[in-house]
Amino acid sequence: MAKSYVKFSVAPEIAGKAYELVQVASSTGKVRRGTNEATKAIERGTAKIVIIAENVEPEEIVMHLPDICTEKGIPFVFVPDKKELGKYSGMDVQSAAIAIENPGNGGELLKELLNHIPKKA
User: Fold this and answer.
1) CB of 81 within 8 A of CB of 107?
2) How far apart are CA 57 and CA 110, in angstroms?
3) Kindly report the CA angle at 64 between 117 and 37, in degrees rounded to 5?
4) 13-44, pLDDT tens digit by residue?
5) How far apart (Å, rounded) are the C-alpha atoms in residues 96 and 5?
6) In this structure, how many other beta carbons lie within 10 angstroms of the beta carbon of residue 71?
7) How many Å apart are CA 19 and CA 16, to the nearest integer?
8) Reduced to 3 states, what is the DSSP secondary structure of residue 97?
9) I want to staple 95 with a disulfide (CB 3.0 to 4.6 A). Which of 6, 26, 42, 86 is the partner?
10) Burial bucket for residue 1 (CB in 10 Å: 0-12, 13-18, 19+)
11) What whole-number distance in Å separates Cα of residue 70 and Cα of residue 24?
12) Residue ranges of the chain with pLDDT lower than 70?
């Protein structure tokens, strides 16, 4: 069953691009890992994009993120798995959300991803 916070679904290739962007930004740019750090980056306006896992339990952990992203004008995208999100960000543990503050060498990937996600959720 779909989670209430998932505002739109993305194609597997778009999710793959999001994972790839997280991996590149983690090694060459700056990312904020976890819901609390992502929330801070959104509220401060430093996040370029927020990646949110779809399989977070309980969903209350991340359900505020799409709303504050929309309020602040920060794009966001959903990916299927929190374990994969953590892995691609360079951690051995899962992550419910990642905020990318500086894409590093992933600037082109970020632009491509932004072109494929809905503008209004």
Assistant:
1) no
2) 27
3) 85
4) 999 999 999 999 999 999 999 999 999 999 99
5) 12
6) 10
7) 5
8) strand
9) 86
10) exposed
11) 25
12) 1-2, 119-121
Task: Please return the burial class of 9, using the count of CB atoms within 10 Å of its CB with bins 0-12, 13-18 and 19+.
Answer: exposed
Residue 12: CB atoms within 10 A of its CB come to 9
Continuous segment of H or E residues that includes residue 26: helix 12-28
Distances (CA, A) of 38 to 7, 11, 91, 112: 18, 23, 15, 21
Domain definitions of the chain by residue range? 12-114
Q: Can you tell me which residue has the tokens 């991340």?
A: 62
- At the fourth CATH level, which superfamily is domain 12-114? Ribosomal protein L30/S12 (3.30.1330.30)
15-46 as b/e: b if 16+ CB within 10 A: bebbbebbbbbbeebebbbbbebbbebbeeee
